[in-house]
Amino acid sequence: MISIKHRNTHEVLTTLEGDSLKGSSLAHGMLLYGDLHGADLRQADLRQANMCNCDLIGADLSEAQMTAADLSGSDLTDAKLRGAILVAARLLAITFVRTNLRGADLDRATFTYSTFRDADLTEAMLERADLRHVVMDHADLTGADLSYAHFGSSVLGYSNFTFASLVGAVFQGTDIRNATFQNADLSLSIFVGADLAGADFTQANTRGTTFVDCRNIGQAKGLDLPT
Known about the structure:
Blueprint: E1 2-5, E2 12-16, E3 95-97, E4 115-117, E5 135-137, E6 170-172, E7 190-192, E8 210-212
Parallel strand pairs: 3-4, 4-5, 6-7, 7-8
Antiparallel strand pairs: 1-2
């Protein structure tokens, strides 16, 4: 039998039969402040679970089903979520440091005030994701689908969007200095009041893209705008 305890008080939050959390069913579970440091939650059912403020450092959530789960305030440093399904999940103010989110389904997820540092989101699905007020530092989003995502007031410095789909994405007041958009699809996207210094748009598709009141647009690379 396995017990999941409160990270601060050590009170038992829930118990499960067996000797592993892999593939366990915790759907709709109340796991607030849970101590899941290094836990093996591969392929677990965590749909609509309340996992706010959990310690998930180094946890393995690969291929976990987490649709509509709430992990707000949790620490996912060094966690693995490769192929996890987090459609419409609430992921506010989360720490994603060196987190593996390769191929994860994050469509319509809310990431407001979260931090991505050296995180791997290669080929992740983030269509219509709410990425307002996030900080991305050297995050890798190569080949990710960010169609119609909203990056309002976010910082994307040195992050990699090579070959990403950003169709219809909104960059309002966004700091994208030194970010890379090489070969990305930015068609119909909107940049309003964004700082473009050092951003690389080489071979990017900017058909129908709107740039309004952007700062340092002359310092962007590979940006072919009509005169």
